[in-house]
Amino acid sequence: MLDEDVIAAPKATHSPQQAPRTKQIMPQQSPTSLSVFEQTYWQIAPVDSACLPSIDERINHKTKPLGALGQLEDLARQLAQIQYPAPEGSQPIEINRPVMLVFAADHGIAAHSISIAPPEVTQQMVLNFINGGAAINCFSETLGWTMKVIDAGMLSPIDETARASAGDMLIEQSIGSGTADFSKQAAMSQDQVEQALLMGAKIATEQIEQGSNVLAFGEMGIGNTSSASALLSLICGLSPERTTGKGTGISDEQLANKVQLITDALARVEQTHGTKAFTPQTALAEVGGFEIAQIIGAMLATAKAGKSILVDGFIVSVAALIATRIAPRAQDYMLFAHCSAEHAHQQVLAQLDARPLLSLGLRLGEGTGAALALPLLQAAASFYNDMASFESAGVTV
What we know:
Keywords: Cobalamin biosynthesis, Glycosyltransferase, Transferase. It catalyses: 5,6-dimethylbenzimidazole + nicotinate beta-D-ribonucleotide = alpha-ribazole 5'-phosphate + nicotinate + H(+). There is one protein chain. By secondary structure, the chain is α/β, with parallel strands linked by helices. It folds into 2 domains: 55 residues, no CATH class; 279 residues, Rossmann fold, CATH 3.40.50. 46% of the residues lie in helices and 8% in strands. A 6-stranded parallel beta sheet has the order 3-2-1-4-5-6, sandwiched between helices. The N terminus is likely disordered.
C-alpha cells in the first residue's frame, strides 16, 4: 500500500529518452544552493493574522446582518489579508491586471489512447487559443483576463507564421517534446523537473512585475488527467481507482485501461524507489507533466511575491497540492475557483481542506473554472471597499 506524506530522500531515476527538441537548460540555483524542493528556497511569508480584527470589523459593520454575504465575506477576508497585512487591514482590496496563464505540454502516456483525442490535439488546441476560438478565450475576453499561452513541452512547436500572429500571447519555454510514457519509465529527468519549476516561476514573476496581483493557471495536454491521477496516487497514497476518472469523457473500456496503466506505473515506481520515497520531486519525475511542473513553480513564485493564486480544476488543483507539499505557506495565497465534475477533484480539495467558490459541473480544463470565478473576487472587493457601514449610512439596528 502506498504511504502518505512520506519524506524520505528519493533515489536517482532513469532519464527518459527525449526527442531531439529536448533542451538541456540547467537549473539556476540560489547562491546558497538550496533545492527548489525545499520550502526555504521559496521564502514564502505567511499571511499575518494580526490584521484580521480590523478586517472583520470592516466587514461586520457593513449595512447587512452578520455573515449575510456568506462565502463572499470569507473571500473578501482572505483577499484583504493577502494584500494588506497589519497594520493596514482597513485599506481597500485591489484586483489588478488579472492574468490567465495556460500551460500546454504533451504526455507519452497518451500513446495508449486513454483520451477522446490523439496527442496532436494539444498543438491544435494551442493554435485555437492563439486564434481566440476556445472557451477560455471567450471567458477571458468577456471577464477581463489578460491571457497568455505557454508551450511547456509539446510534441511539435508552433510554426513561425502562427508564432508571429500570436504576438506576445504565446510564450515558448519548452522542456522537451513531451514526456516519456510513465507506464514504462520515468516521465522526465530530475533536472527537467527543476527546470520546469524554475521556468514556471519565471513567467509568474514576469507577470507580477507587469502589475498582476491575481494569477490563474490553466492547462492543455492530451493525457494530463492520467498524469494528475498518478501524481495524486503517489503523493497521497490513494489507489488508481480512487484518483482516476473519465476526464473529458472516455469510454468505460478506456477508463479501465487508464487505471491499469497508472497501476503499472505505481508498481514500477515502487520497485524503483520502495514505498517511502514519494516526495514531490520523485512523483513529478516519475509520472508528472511538463505543464503541471511549470504550474507548480508559477504558484510558488506567486505566493513568494504575496499575490493571489486562483486555482482551477482537477489538474491545477493537483499542482496546488504538490506546491503546498513543497512550501505549505503557499496555501495562504490560494483561492479555489470551483469543484469540477472529475470525481477525484473532490479528493484533492479534501486534502487541501479547500472550499471552492463554484460548482458548475465543469470538466474542460483550460482554466475555464478559474476564469469564471473572477467576478466573485471583484464582487467581494466591491462590497468590502464601497458598501456603506451602518454609521456612514445612518442606519440604526
